[in-house]
Design goal:
CATH superfamily of the largest domain: HAD superfamily/HAD-like
CATH topology of the largest domain: Rossmann fold
Shape: globular
Order of helices and strands: EHHHHHEHEHEHEEH
Oligomer: single chain
CATH class of the largest domain: Alpha Beta
Strand order of the largest sheet: 3-2-1-4-5-6
CATH architecture of the largest domain: 3-Layer(aba) Sandwich
Largest sheet: 6 strands, parallel
Distance between the termini: 13 Å
Structural class: alpha/beta
Number of strands: 6
C-alpha cells in the first residue's frame, strides 16, 4: 500500500454530520427572526462550529442565548441523522484488512464520538480516537497528529491525514505527513497532496485492490 496509517477527521469526512448541524443553527436563527443562506453557513463551518456561531452572533448582534439554542437543537440530533459517507466504512474495513491502521483526531467530545461509532458498529476499526477531552489544541495546530504519531511510533512518510477542511490540511502539513482533502475546495496557499470526491478515489490512492 502507498500508506500504512490514516489519521481521519470525523465530522464531514467519515460521517455526514453537517446537514443536521446546519439545520440546528437554522432553527436557532429562526427564533431570532434571522435567515442565513445554507451556503454561507457551510462556508462559516469550514472553520469550526464555535467560530461559526461567534461570527453569526457578531454579524447579526444576537443575544448570547443564541449559542445555547443551537446547542439545544443539536441535542435533538440522533446518531441515525449522522450516517457515514458512502464507502467510508467499507474503505476503513478494507484498509484494516490489508494491514493498515485507522486513527481519528476530532474536536468532538469523546462521548459523542463513541455513541456514533457504537451505533454504526465500527469502533473496532480504529486503533485510537483523540477527542476534545484529550486536551490537544484544535487543528490547524498539529499537536493531535503529533501525539498519535508518537504514541503509535508511526513513520511520517507512511501516514496520511484525511479531512474535509483546510485546517485539516494545514495541521497535517505542519505535522510533516501527507494530506488528502475530501469534497472540499483546496486552498492555493496550502494545497493538499490529494483531493478526492469519493472514497473510491481514495482506494486508488491507497492502492487497495478493487
Amino acid at each position: 500500500m502507498r500508506f500504512d496509517h490514516i489519521i481521519w477527521d470525523l465530522d464531514g469526512t467519515l460521517f455526514d454530520t453537517y446537514p443536521p448541524l446546519i439545520a440546528s443553527i437554522e432553527q436557532a436563527l429562526g427564533e431570532f427572526q434571522v435567515t442565513v443562506p445554507r451556503s454561507e453557513l457551510a462556508r462559516l463551518l469550514s472553520d469550526t462550529v464555535a467560530a461559526c456561531i461567534e461570527a453569526i452572533t457578531a454579524r447579526y448582534s444576537l443575544d448570547p442565548l443564541f449559542e445555547a439554542r443551537v446547542a439545544y437543537y443539536q441535542r435533538q440530533v440522533t446518531e441515525r441523522d449522522q450516517p457515514p459517507f458512502d464507502g467510508a466504512i467499507c474503505l476503513c474495513e478494507r484498509f484494516l484488512k490489508a494491514g493498515g491502521q485507522n486513527l481519528i483526531f476530532t474536536h468532538r467530545s469523546r462521548e459523542s464520538v463513541l455513541r456514533l461509532l457504537d451505533w454504526y458498529l465500527v469502533e473496532g476499526l480504529f486503533a485510537e480516537c483523540l477527542t476534545a477531552e484529550d486536551g490537544y489544541a484544535c487543528k490547524p495546530d498539529p499537536a493531535g497528529f503529533n501525539a498519535l504519531i508518537a504514541r503509535h511510533d508511526l513513520p511520517r512518510p507512511r501516514v496520511l491525514a484525511v479531512g474535509d477542511r483546510t485546517l485539516d490540511i494545514v495541521a497535517g502539513k505542519r505535522a510533516g505527513i501527507s494530506t488528502c482533502l475530501f469534497r472540499g475546495e483546496p486552498d492555493p496557499a496550502c494545497p493538499p497532496d490529494f483531493t478526492i470526491a469519493s472514497f473510491d478515489e481514495l482506494r486508488s490512492i491507497l492502492r487497495l485492490p478493487a
